[in-house]
Amino acid sequence: MFQTRRCQRIREVPIKNEREEPKFLFELNLKGNHSIKYALWADARSRTACEYFEDVVSFDTTYNTNRYNLVFCSFVGINHRDQSTLLGCSPVKNEDIQSLKWIFGAFEMCMPITIHRWCIWQNMKKIPNKLNGYKRHEEIEQEMSHVVCNWFTKDAFDRNWNDFLTKYCLGGNKWLSELYDDWHIWIPIYLDHHFWARMRST
After folding, report:
1. Count of CB atoms within 10 A of residue 53's CB?
2. Start and end of every MULE transposase domain (predicted)?
3. In this predicted model, what pLDDT tens digit does every residue of 79-100 receive, in sequence order?
């Protein structure tokens, strides 16, 4: 993943920090040739900040500006001054399921009280690609957005979701079935007992 010399440096610095700073956390996953596959850092300041400002944590993978084409993944919270504060970070080569599972697993070990929520915006922006083979797909997109975001009871959401699937003959759609199976981590009405600062993205 990284050039050998830089790999060694990346491994040495956290080891030194762990000796000097007990709360420093560094998780590393190596390939068979001992090159770095995944890595995650969270220093003492970040871990302490998470204890105070863990209410909402944003995970962002949009930073990709270096010459090695690595994505910089950041875990960011909001402090008492309404300022962003870095809680942890991880460089990754590929934003695939395996990579993200490892990152979230490492972060949860570091910050065990974290409650994971999917990004609504990320799910909704996939609709044109996932459902454009259906007639009236633009109408489907509008109605799905309404069903997901505009109900105030769980029973109302379940009822209207089923009506939506029936109306557009979407009952056999695998993607929608999988989304529904994971309702507890992205549908707003099922997450209303947690504070999210009205966050819908990242």
Report:
1. 18
2. 56-110
3. 777 777 777 778 777 777 788 7
Structure token pair of residue 28: 């590393």
What are the structure tokens assigned to 110, written together?
């570091």
Residue 53 in tokens: 């400002």
Length of the chain: 202
Question: 113: how many CB neighbours lie within 10 A of its CB?
Answer: 8
Rounded Cα gap, residues 17 and 114, in angstroms: 24
> What is d(CA 186, CA 200) in angstroms, rounded to the nearest whole number?
9
Q: Say which amino acid occupies 24.
A: F
Residue 43 has pLDDT above 80, yes or no: no
Task: Decide: 89 and 75 in contact? Cβ < 8 Å.
Answer: yes
Indicate the average pLDDT of the chain. Answer: 73
Say if pTM beats, i.e. exceeds, 0.70.
no
pLDDT of residue 2: 47
Compute the radius of gyration of the chain from its Cα atoms: 20
